[in-house]
Each structure stands twice: as C-alpha cells, then as structure tokens.
Design a protein that fits this description.
mainly beta; single chain; 5 strands; 43% strand; 79 residues
Length: 79
Amino acid sequence: MKSTLIDPDADLVRECYALVYSPNRSRKRFPESCVAIKASEDAARAGADPGKRLVPAVVFGPSRSSEGFRLFYLVRWLD
C-alpha cells in the first residue's frame, strides 16, 4: 500500500484514537461512517466489542478521497 504524505504544518488531518467497525482486519482505510473518534486510548479500549466488530485503533484522518469520501487510515490496532 502506498504511504500517506503528511504535511506537519497543516492541521487538517490528525492522528487520533478511535473505535473502528472492521469485519476484516486486512483493510487499511475506512470510511468516516465506520470510525468513532475517542478522547483517549483508554476510551477506545473500553468501547471495544468483538461481537459488534468494534476494534480500538489509532487512525489518521479524515482525508478526502478522490471520490469525495472522508477516509481514515489505520496507523495501528490497539488490541
């Protein structure tokens, strides 16, 4: 997968903790509708629910795709 270029002076996208709806862990990017931003790592871990396929993660975004969707990119899973 191509790496994402980051402009350190821009404040449009950021790295954050989140709960990600992920039926398949092979994906590296997720639409905004599958991502719930959390205030902290503890909050993301506390909201994990394997039965609902909600996985705590660190994500980068949102970024606008070429199709106009807002996407988040996986940095790493927290579990």
